[in-house]
Amino acid sequence: MSDQTLPHVGAPGAMIAPARTALVVVDIQVDFAAPEGVVGQCGVDMGVAERVIDRIEPLIAAARRAGVTVAFLRVMTRPESDSHALRTLMERRGTPGAEAICRIGSGGEAYYRVAPQPGDIEVGKLAYSGFSGTDFDQQLRARGIDTLVMTGLTTDCCVDSTTRDAFHHDYHTFVVSDACGAFDEGLHLYALKAMAEHCSLLVESEAVLAAWGALPVEVAA
């Protein structure tokens, strides 16, 4: 299975109109995306993260030019804020301490290659979903946003969790399949397939750029 076998919306157009849409950038942080971060120091090939960010950067620029709200989500933790369920899960899996990621003050929580600007939405979260224990929903509602265009890391975890929660909060969601990624290609593809089946539409970055005026719109013959 490849991205091309998945059901993409070729021309989202008015479905992602700038006035009611937010581009959501999930967990593009040192610990998840940079070679010096926690994941990179485990020997994981970070090329996936770099390729994802290569797609996200022009989407951010196009969103800002078009007047689309840009929302940055990132994990920000302290030992005392760690979920008991998460700590216990890591212990039972034989990886105690694996929850210690994106610690505030470590540098691992910092943005990597992208960063918010004044007027953007910023949300710090403790775990996977951007809606869990945060004011993300309130910030979106205050701006009249009902549609989210999802990007970031990782497709199977925080992108998936936030997208499903967005659906449960009654938002229309679009996952940009080539602007999100996972460190296991199988998980990336199957997460996209599951979201397309149950809660979201899939788009590619070029279609989003075209919808926001950054690329010519191709007219079907």
TrEMBL record:
Q: Which UniProt keywords apply?
A: Hydrolase
SUPFAM superfamilies in the record? Isochorismatase-like hydrolases (SSF52499)
Q: Which GO terms describe its molecular function?
A: hydrolase activity
- This protein's source sits in the domain of life called Bacteria
The protein in question is named: Cysteine hydrolase
Segments forming domain Isochorismatase-like:
21-205
